[in-house]
Design brief:
The structure is a homotetramer of 365-residue chains. By secondary structure, chain A is of the alpha/beta class. Chain A has 10 helices and 17 strands. Chain A is globular, with a radius of gyration of 22 Å. Chains C and D meet through β7, β8, β9, β10 and β11 of C and β7, β8, β9, β10 and β11 of D.
């Protein structure tokens, strides 16, 4: 006897859709029924000549099928809102690519629509499901690096220059969703300054820098770049006791946890003479690279989507996580428009379902 | 018969002084006469038990010695002004560590004093004398990467937290002096935004980010960090035809010149349909790592100092190069105080000997 | 109208079979009809729940199907001979995993059987179809590195300790097939010495070193190791004018072509004094990393298999390439048994269909 | 009052002599009196214009000076024997560059001469004094990697082709002296096979491979190469519980200790079915990179030399360590002459002062 499975349709057969198709077919509890694309020949090409999955170009057909319980949306960003709304209205659970919507307000609407309907709305923040981020999350939130002192992320390579979004909206959601997943609850982004440049005349920023002020006074920096001939994907969480470096392109040593750093001595520890001179000391201890399981992140996404539907619970990267990313991106765009000044980030209070403009502490105080 | 040599005194036997002592002894045309330090035992320790060079703690003695034609100053930054002024007043040529002075105004005064006295005033911008920067300079200024599209520099490691300057004033002079040396004459910094953080309570920024707006609309970014457990020293000059990466920690491949990048097609090249869709194309050509000579940069500094004195000419990194770095640093500090807004950079017009606040084009236009 | 396609069956659903299944489905001209495994549930698991490809545990059924024109064999090494013989006897073209057979004599029999029947017999020497090896082949055979001076290959990582073959038979076929593909026709292996160790008591060598004497006096060395915690896959072809390094784990710089090396001056170039002293000079020129297309090697294997069948020609890695690898492996095993002495390698003269024990020049003459 | 110091003369002002001169001047307890070279102008050039150390071209003068208690010999290899003998005969302690002598017999003579005279005879096996090797020694001899399973060393780069020794005698002493220092007392080299090639016609091997059979059945391999355009200096000690990799060119992670490997299950641990199939299991634990002090190895050499003289004891790398290296090199040369067969290594029994040809266990048993 087969285990119960729910029907899934993948919407969008472009860049990412094929990955969802492949992964869905490998996920227990999921039965892939459709691949839907406005261009049905593209959908057929993705499925190939040997598949029993149906190709269609009719979203209506998919949403009308009572066997379909959920959809995974991998259409262009500008259409996420429309497709997700229709799917929720048809009573389908939704997994959606980042960004959740083209602006914060639309994103909040979607989340509220899903909550009202009792449906799962999940973001495909794929990196949050890598073994490296799972380890980072446990380490940083568990106090394994002490208090967070700085965060630095670099995500650059010769990337696809997008026609509808700038490099910040295209790439930074990866960094921001990981930040939100890894940082402790009491370390939250309160303001953001953004700089960008469009040296090739693409009509939107192709090189971008974000500086986030965190609630504990630390700063987090993100460098995203579509024009770099070299590929770098590193993220550093500097802490008071340890610093952890994630190099996603080093498969044999993705995480390196350094017991190295600079300590400030408190005055009590110092004699009168020393007080005037020595204010810091240096630790240069061992480095540990923890063993990580080899596990495809997207498998984890699909498994979590299936589990949250089956168990009737929120997924790890629920709609609010998408809203929080939108909130930062929107403030970043505003900063870009204002010449790089810090803009406050709206705090999303998901419990009260209301949204408060944070009273931001002065930057660089 | 021995070649004519001029007498040199090194002032300061701390962190960098020993390197000047060693290098001076190897430089043709230079005769090292003194090592001077307030703490004479430190000077003696640096010279060791086998040296004929005189140790002294009296700057006056050094400056009064008519055999001494030049001094090299490696004292703490705050004292550069005083020592350099006294040396110039005594008719000595001066080589000084960065930064030239603690503020722009003092720096300009020094340069004017040297010019009035007809003496060489040279900055020890050591990196400008590396074979890598010499190659970069010829490549970038010679059009070898096309037009400059973006610049990115990272200089991070577990560094000595300074007690008198923040991380920007301590480390960024290296990056800025290289920028000024390598960039074409018509690509100059016009504004700077600075962000910093002091997560260890050191009393000054230990992590810093500079975003420079260049006169051609490109941006240059500098990340300096005293707290990083890993050491990175990379600089990227992205251009319209090539991009060059300088990795100073990779001795066998310091420079990598990529024929890779993103091109925008002009409308003329595109048919009507394509115009709506394809705006960019990608080049993925070969990479060349040019052979570079092995040569110690500080030897080049000392040789240039000797040559500029002997030949009665300006050195490559003359006082104005130090003034230009000060000008950016001062604007950066102002930006830091103002929460990260872009601050214009004073243009130093060395020919007219006057200084013009640049009319800055709007950032992110 | 659909293009003509021939029917293919994949035999073996273990480690490599799934890759053949996936690739076959993507290859033009190929129609995947069966996946055959003694354990039919394993075959079904590989195909998944959405496939129209038939799973079977009956090789006879596959071979009896007139729609099946070819088979791809990915069964355990010890069974290659039996399965390939049966397939050829049934008139099917054959693609077989390395090694072709468990010994040289069986390998030759298979090739002769295929030739007699006018069927394609191709080896899946996957690495020979990588863009890197294609470039290496053109470079080295085209004289781009001058004469070959030495070859060095390292292929180590924590590998699957095999129960039927030692590390030489498991891993070295990769290195040897690339050597044979890349080296010029007049540079051939004439003798081999092998050393091995079994420090974990596995019953067969887990660490192995091969030293090949080449016909031009150069040596080629192969280090294979199942026990290494770090993964290295590099191959160096040192030549008289250039040296090329292939680092298969560096996706952004797989090939590096160095214009560096040591030249011996001929006596004519030297004066009498110099003759006694200076016999060498050093070149330290640029390094070039050529752009390589991104292309999956196994797609190239399958495409070549299909093309050789359709066009009725020998594939690039035909049966004789498998025989040549077997010839070296068999001599290596003999050397291992004899304590590491050099053993001659039988030269396979495919045109005359006879096999000559090479008259080996004395090693290290 | 100054501490007592003994007088030292450095003999040889060529490649390595200047390093000995510099280091000697920094070592407590040592007073550098002379730099001696047949070419006195070279000696003067090394000392420079500011030194109080005497330059001389007379070894006799040096050896006749009663203030000189010790000499450090950095002359060409072929002259080590003559200079060391004369120095010992004059009652001087001796530090000598590797190799100790041009053959084993001469080396033993020297050691015996020193012992008879009660003088220190020390080898400058510099690598043995690096913090990395000190850590390796403690780790491996202390059981930190379990039993030694294999050793692999690669030392290749564009090196100075020597006119008097081949690449094995030039470079392998580094590897062999480290092996002897790091391996446990009960794991000793018993036989060696050597392969070499001279592809540039230099008259001696420029590429070399050594395979050492160790007394516990493991093998150690050394690859040395003067012709490689890339520089690699790695050494791996594979053990039953851990494996440690030393990458001397990675200053921030010289040692990496992996808790990874392959374990064989004993039959007792396995059920009947499993016994036939599963014989190994895999560990993939964390990796630790221990913090190492930054310390120049040659300072350690000089300090140990001074201490052994002052304390009247054997130095860590005494004459016997040089003899043991010679013993392996001589067998390696014999193997090279014999086409690569394993040659037994003479065991040096320093206590009994006699030398036994080891009864070698059969290789590859």
């Amino acid at each position: 006897m087969e285990r119960r499975r729910f029907g899934l349709a993948v919407i969008g057969a472009g860049y990412w859709g094929p990955n969802l198709v492949r992964t869905a077919q490998l996920t227990e509890g999921v039965r892939l029924d459709y691949l839907c694309d406005l261009d049905i020949s593209r959908a057929k090409r993705v499925l190939g000549d040997y598949s029993t999955v149906r190709a269609t170009n009719s979203l209506d057909e998919v949403l009308a099928d009572p066997e379909v319980a959920a959809v995974a949306i991998a259409t262009p960003a500008a259409t996420h809102l429309h497709v997700a709304r229709a799917a929720l209205a048809a009573g389908k659970h939704v997994l959606v690519e980042k960004p959740l919507a083209a602006n914060l307000s639309d994103g909040i609407d979607l989340v509220e629509q899903a909550e009202a309907a009792g449906l799962v709305l999940m973001l495909d923040h794929t990196y949050c499901y890598t073994p490296a981020v799972a380890h980072l999350r446990e380490l940083v939130r568990g106090g394994g690096i002490g208090t967070v002192q700085y965060v630095d992320s670099v995500r650059i390579n010769l990337g696809l220059v997008q026609s509808d979004v700038d490099v910040l909206w295209d790439l930074a959601p990866h960094d921001l969703s990981v930040f939100l997943s890894v940082l402790p609850d009491d370390v939250t982004p309160v303001a953001v300054a953004a700089h960008g440049a469009d040296p090739i005349g693409a009509g939107r920023a192709c090189v971008g820098h974000l500086t986030l002020e965190l609630s504990n006074g630390a700063i987090a920096h993100v460098h995203v770049n579509w024009l770099s001939p070299t590929k770098i994907r590193t993220m550093v969480f500097g802490g008071s006791t340890h610093t952890v470096v994630w190099d996603d392109l080093n498969p044999t040593q993705r995480l390196s946890i350094y017991n190295r750093g600079v300590d400030r001595k408190t005055e009590d520890e110092l004699g009168a003479d020393a007080r005037a001179q020595t204010i810091v000391s240096y630790r240069t201890g061992d480095m540990v690279a923890p063993a990580l399981p080899e596990r495809e992140a997207l498998r984890g996404v699909m498994t979590e989507f299936a589990a949250s539907i089956t168990e009737g619970r929120r997924p790890l990267t629920d709609g609010w996580s998408g809203v929080r990313v939108l909130s930062i991106l929107e403030s970043a765009s505003a900063s870009l428009d204002e010449g790089g000044v810090f803009m406050p980030i709206m705090t999303v209070n998901e419990n009260a379902n209301d949204f408060i403009l944070s009273e931001r502490e002065e930057a660089n105080a």
